[in-house]
Write a structure and sequence with these properties.
Blueprint: E1 11-17, E2 21-27, E3 30-35, H1 38-48, E4 54-59, H2 66-74, E5 78-82, H3 84-93, H4 101-115, H5 125-151, H6 156-186, H7 188-197, H8 205-214, H9 223-230, E6 234-235, E7 238-239, E8 242-243, E9 247-248, H10 253-269, H11 271-282, H12 287-307
Parallel strand pairs: 1-4, 4-5
Antiparallel strand pairs: 1-2, 2-3, 6-9, 7-8
Helix pairs in contact: 1-2, 5-6, 5-8, 6-7, 7-8, 8-10, 10-11, 10-12, 11-12
Length: 315
Protein backbone atom coordinates (compact mmCIF):
# COMPACT_ATOMS: atom_id res chain seq x y z
CA UNK A 1 0.00 0.00 0.00
CA UNK A 2 1.31 3.42 -0.92
CA UNK A 3 1.87 5.99 1.80
CA UNK A 4 2.41 9.72 1.52
CA UNK A 5 4.79 11.76 3.63
CA UNK A 6 2.99 14.38 5.75
CA UNK A 7 3.55 18.00 4.75
CA UNK A 8 6.08 19.58 7.16
CA UNK A 9 4.79 22.39 9.34
CA UNK A 10 5.42 25.81 7.82
CA UNK A 11 8.25 27.96 9.17
CA UNK A 12 6.71 31.44 9.24
CA UNK A 13 8.95 34.36 8.33
CA UNK A 14 7.86 37.94 9.03
CA UNK A 15 8.92 40.37 6.29
CA UNK A 16 8.53 44.12 6.65
CA UNK A 17 8.89 45.95 3.32
CA UNK A 18 10.18 49.50 3.06
CA UNK A 19 11.23 51.39 -0.05
CA UNK A 20 14.95 50.71 0.41
CA UNK A 21 15.12 47.88 2.94
CA UNK A 22 13.61 44.52 3.88
CA UNK A 23 13.51 43.52 7.56
CA UNK A 24 12.84 39.83 8.22
CA UNK A 25 12.69 37.48 11.16
CA UNK A 26 12.53 33.72 11.51
CA UNK A 27 12.39 33.86 15.32
CA UNK A 28 11.39 36.55 17.80
CA UNK A 29 14.94 36.81 19.14
CA UNK A 30 16.54 38.27 16.01
CA UNK A 31 15.63 40.55 13.08
CA UNK A 32 17.92 40.82 10.04
CA UNK A 33 17.69 42.97 6.96
CA UNK A 34 18.75 43.12 3.32
CA UNK A 35 18.54 45.99 0.82
CA UNK A 36 15.41 46.19 -1.28
CA UNK A 37 17.32 45.47 -4.49
CA UNK A 38 17.71 42.51 -6.81
CA UNK A 39 20.91 41.53 -4.98
CA UNK A 40 19.14 41.83 -1.63
CA UNK A 41 16.28 39.70 -2.89
CA UNK A 42 18.74 36.99 -3.96
CA UNK A 43 20.41 37.05 -0.52
CA UNK A 44 17.07 36.72 1.24
CA UNK A 45 16.02 33.83 -1.00
CA UNK A 46 19.25 31.98 -0.18
CA UNK A 47 18.64 32.43 3.56
CA UNK A 48 15.05 31.22 3.34
CA UNK A 49 15.92 28.16 1.23
CA UNK A 50 17.92 26.88 4.21
CA UNK A 51 14.70 26.67 6.26
CA UNK A 52 12.20 23.82 6.39
CA UNK A 53 9.06 24.78 4.45
CA UNK A 54 9.47 28.58 4.69
CA UNK A 55 6.31 30.69 4.42
CA UNK A 56 6.78 34.46 4.21
CA UNK A 57 4.16 36.87 5.55
CA UNK A 58 4.26 40.47 4.31
CA UNK A 59 1.84 43.35 3.87
CA UNK A 60 0.48 44.80 0.65
CA UNK A 61 2.38 48.08 0.34
CA UNK A 62 0.91 49.65 -2.77
CA UNK A 63 3.39 48.01 -5.14
CA UNK A 64 6.70 47.95 -3.25
CA UNK A 65 6.09 44.30 -2.41
CA UNK A 66 5.75 43.09 -5.99
CA UNK A 67 9.42 42.55 -6.85
CA UNK A 68 10.32 40.61 -3.71
CA UNK A 69 7.11 38.57 -3.85
CA UNK A 70 7.90 37.64 -7.46
CA UNK A 71 11.44 36.63 -6.48
CA UNK A 72 10.18 34.46 -3.61
CA UNK A 73 7.54 32.76 -5.73
CA UNK A 74 10.07 32.08 -8.47
CA UNK A 75 12.20 30.30 -5.86
CA UNK A 76 9.12 28.19 -4.89
CA UNK A 77 8.82 29.88 -1.49
CA UNK A 78 5.28 30.31 -0.19
CA UNK A 79 4.12 33.88 0.40
CA UNK A 80 1.11 35.40 2.17
CA UNK A 81 0.41 39.02 1.16
CA UNK A 82 -1.95 40.37 3.82
CA UNK A 83 -4.06 43.48 4.27
CA UNK A 84 -2.27 45.97 6.56
CA UNK A 85 -5.57 46.76 8.30
CA UNK A 86 -5.92 43.14 9.44
CA UNK A 87 -2.39 43.17 10.85
CA UNK A 88 -2.92 46.42 12.79
CA UNK A 89 -6.21 45.10 14.20
CA UNK A 90 -4.36 41.95 15.27
CA UNK A 91 -1.66 44.08 16.91
CA UNK A 92 -4.22 46.15 18.81
CA UNK A 93 -6.03 43.03 20.00
CA UNK A 94 -2.70 41.66 21.27
CA UNK A 95 -1.83 44.96 22.95
CA UNK A 96 1.14 45.61 20.64
CA UNK A 97 0.98 49.37 20.17
CA UNK A 98 4.60 50.23 19.34
CA UNK A 99 5.55 50.30 15.66
CA UNK A 100 8.98 50.03 14.02
CA UNK A 101 10.18 48.08 11.00
CA UNK A 102 11.83 45.48 13.23
CA UNK A 103 8.75 45.13 15.43
CA UNK A 104 6.53 44.90 12.33
CA UNK A 105 8.59 41.96 11.06
CA UNK A 106 8.04 40.15 14.37
CA UNK A 107 4.35 41.07 14.32
CA UNK A 108 3.91 39.68 10.80
CA UNK A 109 5.52 36.39 11.80
CA UNK A 110 3.21 36.12 14.80
CA UNK A 111 0.20 37.05 12.67
CA UNK A 112 1.07 34.30 10.19
CA UNK A 113 1.46 31.66 12.90
CA UNK A 114 -1.84 32.41 14.58
CA UNK A 115 -4.08 33.48 11.67
CA UNK A 116 -2.53 31.30 8.92
CA UNK A 117 -3.63 33.60 6.06
CA UNK A 118 -4.34 32.45 2.53
CA UNK A 119 -1.36 31.83 0.27
CA UNK A 120 -0.64 34.35 -2.47
CA UNK A 121 -1.49 33.04 -5.95
CA UNK A 122 1.47 33.38 -8.37
CA UNK A 123 1.05 35.44 -11.52
CA UNK A 124 3.01 34.89 -14.71
CA UNK A 125 4.97 37.69 -16.37
CA UNK A 126 2.27 38.39 -18.96
CA UNK A 127 -0.38 38.93 -16.28
CA UNK A 128 1.97 41.18 -14.29
CA UNK A 129 2.60 43.31 -17.38
CA UNK A 130 -1.16 43.49 -17.99
CA UNK A 131 -1.69 44.74 -14.43
CA UNK A 132 0.94 47.46 -14.94
CA UNK A 133 -0.85 48.64 -18.07
CA UNK A 134 -4.20 48.69 -16.27
CA UNK A 135 -2.68 50.60 -13.34
CA UNK A 136 -1.41 53.17 -15.81
CA UNK A 137 -4.76 53.31 -17.61
CA UNK A 138 -6.55 54.04 -14.34
CA UNK A 139 -4.03 56.80 -13.56
CA UNK A 140 -4.54 58.42 -16.97
CA UNK A 141 -8.33 58.13 -16.65
CA UNK A 142 -8.27 59.82 -13.23
CA UNK A 143 -6.11 62.64 -14.61
CA UNK A 144 -8.53 63.12 -17.50
CA UNK A 145 -11.49 63.42 -15.11
CA UNK A 146 -9.57 65.95 -12.99
CA UNK A 147 -8.58 68.13 -15.98
CA UNK A 148 -12.11 68.10 -17.39
CA UNK A 149 -13.36 69.18 -13.97
CA UNK A 150 -11.06 72.21 -14.01
CA UNK A 151 -12.26 73.22 -17.48
CA UNK A 152 -15.63 74.29 -16.08
CA UNK A 153 -14.07 77.09 -14.01
CA UNK A 154 -11.07 77.96 -16.19
CA UNK A 155 -10.62 81.33 -17.87
CA UNK A 156 -9.81 81.68 -21.58
CA UNK A 157 -6.03 81.56 -21.14
CA UNK A 158 -6.00 78.48 -18.91
CA UNK A 159 -8.76 76.76 -20.89
CA UNK A 160 -6.51 76.56 -23.95
CA UNK A 161 -3.80 74.75 -21.99
CA UNK A 162 -6.31 72.43 -20.31
CA UNK A 163 -7.82 71.52 -23.67
CA UNK A 164 -4.34 70.52 -24.79
CA UNK A 165 -4.03 68.26 -21.76
CA UNK A 166 -7.42 66.72 -22.49
CA UNK A 167 -6.36 65.92 -26.06
CA UNK A 168 -3.08 64.39 -24.87
CA UNK A 169 -4.74 62.28 -22.16
CA UNK A 170 -7.47 61.03 -24.51
CA UNK A 171 -4.82 59.94 -27.01
CA UNK A 172 -2.81 58.32 -24.21
CA UNK A 173 -5.90 56.46 -23.05
CA UNK A 174 -6.58 55.14 -26.54
CA UNK A 175 -2.96 54.05 -26.96
CA UNK A 176 -3.02 52.28 -23.58
CA UNK A 177 -6.21 50.45 -24.55
CA UNK A 178 -4.45 49.28 -27.70
CA UNK A 179 -1.46 48.03 -25.68
CA UNK A 180 -3.77 46.19 -23.27
CA UNK A 181 -5.54 44.46 -26.16
CA UNK A 182 -2.19 43.54 -27.71
CA UNK A 183 -0.87 42.19 -24.40
CA UNK A 184 -3.86 39.85 -24.07
CA UNK A 185 -3.75 38.78 -27.71
CA UNK A 186 -0.01 38.10 -27.58
CA UNK A 187 -0.21 35.62 -24.69
CA UNK A 188 -1.98 32.32 -25.34
CA UNK A 189 -3.16 31.86 -21.74
CA UNK A 190 -4.51 35.39 -21.38
CA UNK A 191 -6.13 35.22 -24.81
CA UNK A 192 -7.90 31.95 -24.02
CA UNK A 193 -9.15 33.10 -20.63
CA UNK A 194 -10.32 36.45 -21.97
CA UNK A 195 -12.31 34.75 -24.71
CA UNK A 196 -13.83 32.41 -22.16
CA UNK A 197 -14.85 35.27 -19.84
CA UNK A 198 -16.40 37.27 -22.65
CA UNK A 199 -18.80 34.42 -23.40
CA UNK A 200 -20.94 35.86 -20.61
CA UNK A 201 -23.05 38.66 -22.07
CA UNK A 202 -22.23 41.78 -20.10
CA UNK A 203 -18.60 40.85 -19.51
CA UNK A 204 -16.73 43.14 -21.89
CA UNK A 205 -13.02 43.59 -22.61
CA UNK A 206 -12.42 45.91 -19.63
CA UNK A 207 -13.90 43.45 -17.13
CA UNK A 208 -12.04 40.52 -18.70
CA UNK A 209 -8.71 42.35 -18.55
CA UNK A 210 -9.35 43.49 -14.96
CA UNK A 211 -10.14 39.98 -13.76
CA UNK A 212 -7.06 38.54 -15.48
CA UNK A 213 -4.80 41.20 -13.95
CA UNK A 214 -6.21 41.63 -10.45
CA UNK A 215 -7.92 38.33 -9.66
CA UNK A 216 -5.50 35.44 -10.34
CA UNK A 217 -7.55 33.32 -7.90
CA UNK A 218 -10.38 33.17 -10.47
CA UNK A 219 -11.11 29.53 -11.28
CA UNK A 220 -8.98 28.28 -8.37
CA UNK A 221 -11.13 28.93 -5.27
CA UNK A 222 -14.81 28.37 -4.48
CA UNK A 223 -17.55 30.94 -4.99
CA UNK A 224 -18.00 32.12 -1.36
CA UNK A 225 -14.26 32.73 -0.99
CA UNK A 226 -14.17 34.60 -4.29
CA UNK A 227 -17.15 36.77 -3.33
CA UNK A 228 -15.47 37.75 -0.07
CA UNK A 229 -12.18 38.39 -1.87
CA UNK A 230 -13.80 40.85 -4.29
CA UNK A 231 -16.05 42.39 -1.64
CA UNK A 232 -19.52 41.37 -2.84
CA UNK A 233 -20.33 38.93 -0.01
CA UNK A 234 -22.89 40.30 2.48
CA UNK A 235 -21.79 39.88 6.10
CA UNK A 236 -24.22 39.48 8.99
CA UNK A 237 -24.37 42.13 11.76
CA UNK A 238 -26.72 40.39 14.21
CA UNK A 239 -26.58 40.68 17.99
CA UNK A 240 -29.17 38.96 20.19
CA UNK A 241 -32.61 39.92 18.91
CA UNK A 242 -31.17 42.74 16.85
CA UNK A 243 -30.93 41.75 13.17
CA UNK A 244 -29.36 44.52 11.14
CA UNK A 245 -29.22 44.62 7.34
CA UNK A 246 -26.24 42.79 5.88
CA UNK A 247 -23.58 44.79 4.08
CA UNK A 248 -20.69 44.00 1.77
CA UNK A 249 -17.32 45.22 2.96
CA UNK A 250 -13.63 45.08 2.14
CA UNK A 251 -12.37 43.28 -0.95
CA UNK A 252 -10.51 44.41 -4.05
CA UNK A 253 -11.96 47.77 -4.96
CA UNK A 254 -10.48 47.83 -8.47
CA UNK A 255 -12.26 44.60 -9.41
CA UNK A 256 -15.48 45.56 -7.65
CA UNK A 257 -15.75 48.92 -9.42
CA UNK A 258 -15.41 47.39 -12.88
CA UNK A 259 -17.75 44.52 -11.98
CA UNK A 260 -20.34 47.06 -10.83
CA UNK A 261 -20.39 48.78 -14.24
CA UNK A 262 -20.56 45.40 -16.00
CA UNK A 263 -23.50 44.34 -13.82
CA UNK A 264 -25.34 47.55 -14.70
CA UNK A 265 -25.01 46.70 -18.38
CA UNK A 266 -25.91 43.05 -17.76
CA UNK A 267 -29.25 43.93 -16.14
CA UNK A 268 -30.29 45.40 -19.49
CA UNK A 269 -28.50 43.23 -22.05
CA UNK A 270 -28.29 39.79 -20.39
CA UNK A 271 -31.66 38.03 -20.33
CA UNK A 272 -30.94 35.75 -17.35
CA UNK A 273 -29.14 38.32 -15.20
CA UNK A 274 -31.77 40.91 -16.08
CA UNK A 275 -34.51 38.54 -14.92
CA UNK A 276 -32.61 37.98 -11.65
CA UNK A 277 -32.41 41.72 -11.09
CA UNK A 278 -36.10 42.31 -11.86
CA UNK A 279 -37.17 39.43 -9.59
CA UNK A 280 -35.25 40.93 -6.67
CA UNK A 281 -36.67 44.41 -7.30
CA UNK A 282 -40.21 42.94 -7.44
CA UNK A 283 -39.51 41.25 -4.09
CA UNK A 284 -38.85 44.66 -2.55
CA UNK A 285 -35.04 44.66 -2.59
CA UNK A 286 -33.28 47.99 -2.93
CA UNK A 287 -31.62 48.79 -6.27
CA UNK A 288 -28.09 48.46 -4.89
CA UNK A 289 -28.90 45.23 -3.06
CA UNK A 290 -30.26 43.70 -6.26
CA UNK A 291 -27.28 44.96 -8.24
CA UNK A 292 -24.78 43.46 -5.80
CA UNK A 293 -26.62 40.15 -6.12
CA UNK A 294 -26.18 40.38 -9.90
CA UNK A 295 -22.48 41.17 -9.42
CA UNK A 296 -22.12 38.13 -7.20
CA UNK A 297 -23.91 35.88 -9.68
CA UNK A 298 -21.76 37.18 -12.55
CA UNK A 299 -18.63 36.48 -10.54
CA UNK A 300 -19.74 32.91 -9.80
CA UNK A 301 -20.47 32.25 -13.47
CA UNK A 302 -17.13 33.71 -14.53
CA UNK A 303 -15.41 31.59 -11.89
CA UNK A 304 -17.06 28.49 -13.30
CA UNK A 305 -16.11 29.41 -16.87
CA UNK A 306 -12.42 29.48 -15.94
CA UNK A 307 -12.51 26.49 -13.57
CA UNK A 308 -14.39 24.14 -15.90
CA UNK A 309 -13.50 24.16 -19.62
CA UNK A 310 -16.58 22.02 -20.33
CA UNK A 311 -19.03 24.40 -18.67
CA UNK A 312 -21.51 25.83 -21.18
CA UNK A 313 -23.66 28.89 -20.56
CA UNK A 314 -27.43 28.65 -20.87
CA UNK A 315 -28.76 30.33 -23.97
Amino acid sequence: METTNPQPEATYVGLDIAKDRLDYTVGDDRVDHVPHTAAGHARLVQVLLQLTHPRVVCEATGGYERAIVAALLQAKIEVCVVNPGRVRAFAQAAGLLAKTDRLDAKLLRRFGQQVQPRLHVPMDAAAVALRELLDYRRQVSDQLVAVRGRLELAGPLLRERLNGQVTFLKNELSETDRLIAEQIERDETLRGKAARLRQLKGAGPVLAATLLAYLPELGQIDDPQLSALVGVAPFARDSGRNHRPRHVRGGRAVVRQVLYMAALAATTHNRILGATYQRLIAAGKLHKVALVAVMRKMLHVLNRLIADPHFVLAQ
